[in-house]
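pinging the channel bc i need a second pair of eyes. not urgent but kinda urgent?? the chain im working w is below, pasted from the shared doc
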Amino acid sequence: MQSFNQTLVALNAVIWHRWVLYALLGVGILFTLWSKFCQLRALTHGTRVLRGVYDDPDDPGAISHFQALSTALSATVGLGNIAGVALAITLGGPGAVFWMWVIGLVGMSLKTFEVVLSMLFRDTRVEGSPRGGPMLVASRGLARLGWPRLGRAVGSLFVVTLLISTVTGGNMFQAWNVADITHAYFGVPQLLTGVVLASLVGLVILGGIQRIGAVAGKLVPFMCGLYLIAALGVVLARADQVPGLLLLIVHEAFHATEASGAFLGGTAGYALLWGMKRALFSSEAGQGSSPIAHCAARTDEPVREGVVAGLEPFIDTLLVCTLTALVLLSTGIWNRAPDLPFGTRPTPVASADGHWSLTRAPIAVPAETPDGAAVFAIVRAGTNPDTGLDLHSITGRIERDASAAFVSFTPVAAPSLELASEGLWLHYRGATLTAKAFDSVHPGLGKWLVTLAAWLFAFSTTISWSFYGETGVDYLFGKRWIVPYKLTYCAFLVLASIPQLIASDTELDHLTTFGTGVMLWVNLPILLFFSRTALRAYRDYFKRMDRPSDHAGRS
């Protein structure tokens, strides 16, 4: 498993090179300027479309605009908003939040135009089961230009990346986090959580897009509202800190953040990297996944659904992620002091194979801390590829015998090792860290509300991503493979919940980062190649909408 993770790290270094992020930003800014700030259209015209002003039951499609947006949001507003933001701040510092905002803004234009394109090329021949997405944009669009084989090849390549992201981010990330937080608070075995989640997901996804849309349409507003109210309650309790935190976020986006408490420190470049990566994972802007859900919308105006889709990054990143970030920063959970002091300070020890560890150390732990609880210490061990600095966390497990408690540390590959902390931290990972932030203000709030939110978010995200993968399987192999795919999809939920398979949130991030990145590499060229087609349709639509005589009204 270690060699597999090292391979993922090497691949992600290429896939997520800084110039890839600059390219993504450039495309988003380009669409923003070409469309004369389509973000404003999303906030005005998009909300009118959602209210049903332009609905026609005779239009092609299977679900309403609201259900399509809810389905897409159920895939984006998920554990990326709870666990992903925590990971971005843990690794990139407060400055990562600023770059999440940037991606949220440019993501509104990216999402608008990738959905417009997919709507222009969608397949509505089968009544009640419309299909669409970048794979059809590539295959149908290039076929019209006289390159059908190339179009099929590019479409197939996109589907391969879609299935990779479906398994990693849309499936395993969700199951791992909900299993971790449920185990941390209630002691429920992770594998049992995976089995329950897989069973619930299976009951919904076997019903197809109409059942998914119906469930998402009811679940998404409820879970978003519940989480936002709780987050606002925590932020308002620390309202005096908010102005200073906003200034800190902007300042740290362009300056290195010093190590403090549990935070390992980070450069401005890594704040940009982690902020963009987690915002992209959360909002899916530029990935090409959510157009698959939007293509099921009932409408004969492709641009209309594209403008609705522009609301996704606003809700997901600029609203939900920002509130999560303020909860984490205002409570100080991200850079807290050690949770447990050393009983006897451990010393570094080298093994014959070049690995380093710390000696088994006695420690005083509260009685409620379970055996096997994960902890970490901070060490100096060469350059950390996640921060660009030399501090690392070395993980361990609490063990008890008849007389005392000890920590056994996991060896790490490093040129040298030096203990740099005066104590240990309980290893709160992803969603659990966010829950602990809620608990620090209102005891029990994180335990009950964030755990519930994690279950709802994971459930809604996995059902939507199952449909994305199903559409890809249908494109590549045909409908006869859809049922086996759904069963396999549910099996991966169980697999990801096995604690021995994915040992840490860092290993999990390597998987999800890879899944997100490979989609960007295929979808962005498709989006750019057909950009004039999308822009032409966008301008034509609003030219018609802005006519005073148009019966449909203004934007």
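so Residues 551-555 have pLDDT under 50 and may be disordered. and Residues 340-421 form one domain. — does that match what u expected or am i reading it wrong
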